[in-house]
Structure prediction request, 438 residues.
Amino acid sequence: MSADEKTFPRDFTFGVATSAYQVEGGIENDWAEWERAGRLKEPHTRCGRAVDHWNRYEEDYGLAVDVGASAFRVSLEWARIEPERGRFDGAALEAYRERLLRMKARGLRPVVTLHHFTHPTWFHRETPWHTPASVDAFRAYVRACAPLLKGLEALLISLNEPMVVLLGGYLQGLLPPGFADGPKTMAALENMVRAHVAAREELQAVLGRVELGISQNMLCFTPDRWWHPLDHAAVRLGAHAYNHAFHEALVTGKLRVTMPGLASTRAEIPQARGSCEFIGVNYYSRAHLRFLPRYPFLAFQFRDRLGRGLTDIGWEDYPEGFGEILRETKRYGLPVWVTENGIDDRGGQRRPHFLHRHLEQVLAARAQGVDVRGYLYWSLLDNFEWLEGWGPRFGLYHVDFDTLERRPTPACAYFRAVAQGRRLIAPEALEAQPSAAR
Ligand code: FCB
Prediction:
């Protein structure tokens, strides 16, 4: 890598990412119901007060500033804002406005997600995603939120990882609302694309010009058996459906998914054409796909074929795949934001190396013409990791879940050195100058 390829330009954004339910605490929504129904891997686990970010937001903005971040990704919790259908809670809207203004005053650009996995409890009963009423419901919610975003120049994300919501919640039945139904999944997919368009209309009506996109979970798919043509076909179709179909619809207005035997659809949604300003990438790992001769026809596995050791959750640490994914986004001809990338690392020792090798891929992709504008690390803090509960630790800051005390992990000094120095250095280089490692 040449010297230039080690440098991040001044306008490149380093930031951190969170989501409301995982950090705020005290939220009653579909996930709280799901937990009470014993649907997590550890059935007695609850999110509860999470890590109390709702009350400790000032402290947490300070922690982000301390690691050199200039952007902070949060989500608005629909269930706080519209606890009953059609009744909007002015105090909740005001509280979010106050928090976003404080964030901005601290020099952190707000990155605001409108929907990050969770729903008010009425949503699945009254307007689930596979019904057209879901689009109107989301539109009404976004209309209520739009005024609180005025003057913030926030980067806006309508939906976080819609394919995860759809595959987990509508096809596999693992996440709320727990359906396992191909046609419902495809109807819900189409409605989520339409909901994004509706959100865009509402936001533009109040804010004028917007910088809006979605965050897409993108996996680097590879055939489990390199010699098996059907594993290759599974990768081709699976990667298109999972990684690209949603963004493709937002760019071209054409929605296409082909997963034979599981779920397929084709729809023209002309209003969706050109409906995002950037491509949001959440990258974590590589997955091996295998064709199965019977339902569900596909199996996917994280493997450690390179002998690097899986992460605590059991994901492969595969930075090369991040580079591949970033290069694939070139097809859209739009700026790219890495809206999440991170590692669950209980001991905290692997994280600086993870960051180094993933940021290296960002620089390489930029050198190859991918317009990556920013990198948001998942996550600022250890937090509640959905079905996995309290086990995984993704935080730059370690959180003691009893006392809620936040303590820097070794990655804080590394992140700060790169974000402030604008140069990619090896973690060892930092360890050699102890004064830098506060
Ligand atoms: C992503 C989610 C985020 C977090 C990370 C680890 O899929 O968007 O909320 O759970 O995974």
Summary: The chain has 14 helices and 13 strands. The chain has a mean pLDDT of 97. The chain has one domain: 4-437.
